[in-house]
Design a protein that fits this description.
The complex is a heterodimer of chains A (317) and B (366). Helix content of chain A is 78%, strand content 0%. Chain A has 317 residues and is mainly alpha-helical. In chain A, helix 1 runs antiparallel to helix 2, helix 7 crosses helix 8 and helix 10 packs antiparallel against helix 11. The longest helix of chain A has 40 residues. Chain A is globular, with a radius of gyration of 24 Å. By secondary structure, chain B is of the alpha/beta class. Helices cover 40% and strands 19% of the residues of chain B. In chain B, strand 10 and strand 11 form a beta hairpin. In chain B, helix 2 packs across helix 11 and helix 10 runs antiparallel to helix 12. The chains are: A mainly alpha (317), B alpha/beta (366). Chains A and B meet through helix 5 of A and helix 3, strand 7 and helix 8 of B.
Chain lengths: 317, 366
């Protein structure tokens, strides 16, 4: 909102200064803006229509026609579960870490270190997901094996660490951690921008009243940045939900619905399942895969709408 | 300052020019040496298993026939058959012969209207059982034990069922991690086919390109399986024999012998198998019903057989000519040798070549 207001103000000033030219400039600007907005909507609608029309045959097909003789709901449920589990795990790890990193950069570190660190965190976002995938199976997975064994032995009573521990490390826990690293830069960039814009006078006021640095952050910076952190987290969650390549490579999938994070039997995710099975699929199996894509689309939509609702409510308070 | 920059630019341009010139001259040479008899542009699609072999064949064939352009899209066997039937591609590669399901075979015959359907095996690959068990260099498994391991009924390496076939081998109590493909594949299809045909009493799961047992370690692609087996102590998996790398390969019981996935043994089982009458309606369709239960010495029953599917007549003479020349090259001893070198497949045996060659020669060029 704020940026739109400034543009209009600037436009009016410019128009006042340069007389006749303003009309054409304004017209071109407003038309380009409208066309861009409509293009976005059309693209979104196009994708939704594609998913609906191509997925429809699978949605209406009987169980015996679909691959594995399962109804579509039975087919997609474990995948949706895996998708949400992996993304939730990633967000659970990444969001607190990202907030901490953002606070460190904006309020703790000396400026030079802050700048370098900010740059390095942003760089994480530039690494292609397939590289993360390879890193996951060649480095993090094998390195995690002893940790997984330890978790099974000592925390085996927790459902998450029931075991048996995987011998290769290609588990939901490792996949979730890799996803966490992947979404970290997005969440932290959004949080950083918001924290940096906390009004100085609020911060100074808090400190003048005798607040320590942590109290100042808790009372001014965090409340100010709250809605941005939430929207950053949702952006990250969106990426984690749809992440394909890294999960495809890392996760050992076997369709099991389980909260056990350290065994070789993990639920697949929708995106990874499409990537794995599309090449050798034909006929109705392809429709079924596209229909699972529609479900993913719906999950992402619901997540984003939920985020909007949370932000709207927290802004009202 | 600016002069030195110009020098750099000129030097760079010169290097580039020399490079381009070199490329040009080398391609000229190859057209000179190649016969260049066949021209025409054909497209194929299908099996991903054949991809490496097809790429090698295409490179060599185009080298010999400078006028020909051939492409192969590894969309998967099912997709390849579909595209062939729809007339989108001139030939298809498929890990399974055209089936009577959904009257696929009939539709394919119809696609070749005015001509005949041609289907021949062009790619045979033994599937190795690879394992990672430090200290155990030789491992023998009978089909029943193998099936029980992959059905997750046998879960530790010192199980008596494994021990009885491996006297003198010290088997650790390590947990067995069976590794399967997470993507749909012809390798899985053939492996499950073997298990269900040979030990139906143990293997009650469906035969499918999509691994039917839940709870195992799953990895994508042959390389993924090899990587997972290498990384996991106690892991066992199945993969194209050529991709096994440093991993140990288990011997499988065939009759009273212990067989290894060699090229000869793989070709031999195909040679000894009868034709599938239903799927081979004419003399130019050669679809095997693999005799996986064989007890014949020197055979290895876990193999993947992939087919080359084409028509005997095409709309244009140059297309027919190109398909014919390419198909003949693919099944020729030279073509098979090249695939063995580049893709690690088992070349068609002499007897098979003799059987297959007349079928591809039936394509009417010109």
């Amino acid at each position: 909102m704020a940026s739109v207001d400034t543009t209009t103000n600037a436009g009016q000033l410019l128009a006042a200064a340069s007389g006749g030219r303003r009309r054409r400039g304004d017209r071109i600007f407003s038309r380009t803006a409208v066309v861009s907005a409509v293009t976005i909507l059309a693209l979104l609608a196009g994708v939704a229509i594609f998913l609906l029309s191509e997925g429809f045959p699978a949605l209406t097909a009987s169980a015996s026609e679909l691959p594995h003789d399962k109804t579509f709901v039975d087919y997609v449920a474990p995948l949706a579960f895996g998708t949400v589990l992996a993304a939730a795990l990633a967000a659970l790890v990444a969001v607190p870490l990202a907030v901490a990193v953002a606070l460190f950069i904006t309020h703790v570190a000396p400026p030079r270190i802050a700048l370098t660190l900010g740059y390095l965190v942003d760089l994480l976002a530039a690494i292609p997901s397939i590289i993360y995938g390879l890193w996951g199976i060649f480095v993090l997975g094998p390195a995690a094996v002893p940790v997984l064994k330890w978790l099974e032995e000592h925390l085996g009573w927790v459902p998450f660490f029931q075991g048996p521990a995987s011998a290769t490390g290609r588990t939901m826990l490792v996949a979730g951690l890799v996803l966490a690293v992947m979404i970290l830069p997005i969440v932290s960039a959004v949080a950083r921008e918001a924290f940096a814009q906390t009004p100085r006078r609020l911060q100074e006021g808090a400190q003048a009243l005798g607040a320590t640095r942590w109290e100042m952050i808790r009372m001014t910076v965090l409340p100010f940045g709250k809605s941005s952190v939430i929207s950053g987290a949702m952006l990250g969650l969106g990426r984690a939900l749809g992440e394909t390549m890294a999960v495809t490579i890392i996760l050992s999938v076997s369709g099991a619905v389980t909260f056990n994070l350290i065994s070789q039997a993990n639920p697949s995710t929708i995106a990874a399942n499409i990537a794995l099975n599309f090449p050798e699929s034909s006929g109705l199996a392809i429709n079924a895969l596209i229909a699972t894509g529609l479900v993913l689309f719906a999950i992402t939509l619901v997540t984003n709408m939920g985020a909007r609702a949370i932000i709207a409510r927290s802004n009202q308070e | 300052m600016s002069r030195s920059r110009w020098l750099v630019v000129i030097a760079f341009a010169a290097v580039l020019a020399v490079g381009v010139a070199a490329c040009g001259s080398s391609s000229n040479e190859s057209t000179g040496s190649g016969g260049g008899e066949v021209s025409g542009e054909i497209a194929g699609a299908g099996s991903t298993a054949q991809q490496a072999a097809q790429e090698a064949w295409i490179a060599e064939f185009e080298n010999e026939n400078s006028g020909a352009t051939i492409s192969y899209d590894p969309v998967g066997s099912g997709g390849g058959r579909e595209q062939f039937i729809a007339g989108g591609v001139a030939y298809a590669g498929s890990d399974a012969a055209l089936s009577t399901e959904e009257s696929e075979l009939e539709k394919a015959e119809k696609r070749c209207k005015g001509g005949e359907l041609i289907e021949v095996p062009d790619y045979i690959s033994p599937i190795a059982i690879i394992y990672n068990l430090p200290g155990v260099e030789e491992l023998k498994l009978d089909p029943e034990t193998l099936a029980k391991i992959f059905a997750q009924e046998i879960t530790s390496w010192n199980d008596p069922a494994i021990a009885k076939d491996n006297p003198g081998v010290e088997l650790p109590s390590t947990r067995i991690t069976p590794v399967n493909r997470s993507d749909e594949s012809g390798t899985t299809q053939n492996f499950t086919e073997y298990l269900s045909e040979v030990v139906p009493s143990v293997w009650k799961f469906e035969v499918s390109g999509d691994w039917p047992v839940k709870g195992g370690e799953a990895a994508s692609g042959t390389s993924g399986v090899v990587e997972a087996v290498s990384a996991g102590e106690g892991a066992i998996g199945y993969a194209d024999a050529s991709q096994a790398g440093e991993l140990s390969i288990a011997k499988i019981k065939v009759g009273s012998e212990w067989a290894e996935p060699t090229a000869e043994a793989a070709a031999k089982i195909v040679e000894e198998s009868p034709l599938d009458k239903e799927l081979s309606p004419s003399k130019n369709t050669i679809a095997f019903k693999l005799d996986r239960k064989t007890e014949s010495q020197g055979t290895y029953p876990i193999v993947l057989v992939s087919y080359f599917i084409a028509c005997s007549k095409y709309g244009s003479a140059s297309e027919a000519e190109a398909v014919k020349a390419y198909a003949e090259y693919v099944v020729s001893p030279e073509g098979q040798e090249l695939a063995a070198e580049q893709a690690g497949s088992a070349p068609l045996s002499a007897a098979l070549t003799k059987k297959v060659t007349p079928a591809v020669e039936a394509i009417e060029a010109g």
